[in-house]
């Protein structure tokens, strides 16, 4: 199913890029010299579709980097919460281990001693 959905997206996208490239084959000058547009210091002649596609790729990469830096706080919080959860699980395991080691009769004896004033009665003081 995933291969089908990938093909459903990639095939039309590829066709659009091919049609775009064929329609925009003419050459353009790319220059980063704003002072002399008629005779730029450094320029390169590329097909228009190459300029547009490379610009889009660079934009996606820069957007991904900006998003990654923007989510730094959430990743840090997730790591901290994961460490706290692991520590809590370790504490729970050690508490369970310490509870399992004493004999089973001792907790019952402690329970009977703590409730000796009302032994045999429930909350409404009725005899059991």
Automatic annotation (TrEMBL):
It comes from the Bacteria. Keywords: Cell membrane, Membrane, Transmembrane, Transmembrane helix. One of its GO terms (cellular component) is plasma membrane. InterPro entries: LapA_dom (IPR010445). The chain crosses the membrane at residues 45-70. Residues 41-92 form the Lipopolysaccharide assembly protein A domain. The keyword Repeat does not apply. Residues 103-128 are annotated as: Disordered. This is LapA family protein.
